[in-house]
Amino acid sequence: MAISAAIVAVSARPAIHLLHTAWDDTVVPEPPLAAGEWRDGGALESYAVGEVRVVPNDEAAALDLIRANFARARATRTSVSFAGARHSMGGQTAARDGIVLDMNGFRGVRYDADRRIVTVRSGTPWSDVIRELDRHGRSVAVMQSNNVFSIGGSVSVNAHGWQPLSSPLAGSVASLRAVLPDGRVATLSREHERELFSLMLGGYGLFGAILDVDLETVPNQRYERQRWVLDSRDYAGAFAREVAAQPAKAGLVYGRLCVAPSCFLQEALLAVYHPDADPAPPVRIDESPSMLARLLFRGQIGSAYGKELRWSAEKFAGERPWQRWTSRNQILDEGISGYANRDMRRAEVLQEYFVPRESLNAFVDAIRPILRDGGVDLLNVTLRDVAADRDSFLRYADRDMFCIVMYFHVERSEAGDARLRAVNEQLTDAALDHGGRYYLPYRLHARPEQFHRAYPQAERFFALKRQYDPDDVLSNEFYRHYATR
User: Fold this and answer.
1) In this predicted model, what pLDDT tens digit does every residue of 341-370 receive, in sequence order?
2) Which tens digit of pLDDT belongs to each residue from 266-292?
3) Can you give the residue range of the structural domain that contains 406?
């Protein structure tokens, strides 16, 4: 009887916690935008823009619209910016009082089996690309860990993902077509106009409107996952042993750091997806997210117990513990409904830092007190690796790096953003002090001197921007914040 009572007591608390989370996980829609108002992801700030124009899917009509707005911006001394899925968080898709070209309607995917290249229009979400390639037994070589972003946006921020020992997305771009500020349509590659090609990759829309991109593909394979729970100080060694030393056995890789109070940034998890030697047909894509996983994630908000519960579940069970086999496309074709905020009275913000692999432990030791005492609610820390980038101009990975991806829950207010700014400034200093960088698609919290220290090539980047676009036809809040200081 005592044992039964203990079992009930132990199981009752998580059940009550998850039920309470489900009750609180309500949809509160974002207020409609006022005329001329524009918001990026995170919704912590809005911008008054002059006009939003939707680019049509017909290429001739799209070219006419893009060129006409470039000419109008030049004549009226305003500017043009580009928007896709709008998951950037600091005005990278808009300039105040400027024209926003919404590229979401400009979609299309075409796979060339002979070249093993997929050609994708810039407004296309990754989900469309994955499902088309799945029909051909192929998969994308590099992408983020979620499928909701647009191709043009991902190229413009030079995204990275779970592909081990790989450079960022730029390394898998064979070529791209863009409308330049003077209206010319250019095909850019490593062999043709290489400098402009490198500036478009991670160029934040400051050099032209991306029309479509040729991406390299790889086989879609069946994977089996292996997991290790480690002291966080042992993560780099485990990665070197299990991934770097045997790359053929690592199809996709990610890590996590504990955010629960009992092991805050002191425990880690390493997950490696091993390709199956048996060429059995890959698992078909399953589009259903796990409600339990969502409740475990959302239950962390403001709750030390919720963070402990989620870390215990991830340590001892992980994602889809009942499923032995999965496929590369199954893993990559994941949306954000499993964790995304539905209550627009709240805000959730990403921030990412890169440090050399040998500096990971020292960096984690440096940021632990910043995150613990900074008054922000940290819900997740993912670890990835990024190989040195030889293709983009404004590169964040000038050597092999670990990436530390942080997901914060903040009060949707100026005060909440100010607290996050104070923390991010300290985290940026810590990354810089350890030979690292920070990622640019998020809140513009880094001070100008921090930005230029992280990206010493930025002055040349902005000088080339003025060379290729002397009338400043193309702009956004990121450019205005850092290029004019």
Assistant:
1) 888 888 899 999 999 999 999 999 999 999
2) 999 999 999 987 766 676 666 566 788
3) 222-454
> Is residue 246 included in any domain, yes or no?
yes
The one-letter amino acid code at 444 reads L
User: Which tokens hold the place of 398?
Assistant: 């000038």
pTM: 0.93
Place of tokens 């191709």: 151
Main-chain dihedrals φ then ψ at residue 433, nearest 5 degrees: -65, -20
Q: Which of 458, 403, 443 is nearest to 199 (CA)?
A: 458
Cβ atoms of residues 221 and 328 within 8 Å: yes
For every residue of 381-425, DSSP letters joined together read: EEEEEEPPPSS-SS-S-SS-EEEEEEEEEEESSHHHHHHHHHHHH
What are the distances in angstroms from CA 90 to CA 43, 87, 395, 440, 466?
9, 10, 19, 9, 22
Smallest Cα–Cα separation from 337: which of 161, 160, 148? 148
Structure tokens at 119: 């050609």
Q: Residues 6 or more apart from 451 whose CB is under 8 A from it?
A: 458, 482
Give the CATH number of the domain where residue 341 resides: 3.30.70.2520
Distance, CA of 365 to chain centre: 24
Buried b (16+ CB within 10 A) or exposed e, 316-355: eeebeeeeeebbbbbbbbbeeebbebebeebbbbbbbbbb
CA distances to 83, 123, 131, 366 from 127, in Å: 18, 12, 6, 37
Greater confidence (22 vs 187) lies with: 187
Kindly give, in sequence order, each residue whose CB lies less than 8 Å from that of residue 322, ignoring residues fewer than 6 positions away.
Answer: none
Location of structure tokens 């470039």: 70
- pLDDT for 168-182, tens place per residue? 999 999 999 999 999
**C-alpha to C-alpha distance for 448 and 198, rounded to whole angstroms:** 23
Q: Is residue 125 part of a domain?
A: no
Q: How far apart are the C-alpha atoms of 429 and 426, rounded to whole Å?
A: 5
The count of structural domains within the chain is 1
Q: Is residue 263 part of a domain?
A: yes
For residue 112, the SS3 value is strand
Shortest CA distance to 451 belongs to which of 425, 474, 469? 425
252 contacts: CB under 8 Å, gap ≥ 6: 162, 163, 164, 223, 272, 273, 328, 331
Residue 17: both structure tokens together: 């916690």
80 vs 63: CA distance, rounded Å: 14
Overall average pLDDT of the 315-339 stretch: 81
Specify if 9 maps to a domain. no
What whole-number distance in Å separates Cα of residue 25 and Cα of residue 236?
36
- List, in sequence order, every residue forming a beta bridge with 60; answer none if it has no partner: none
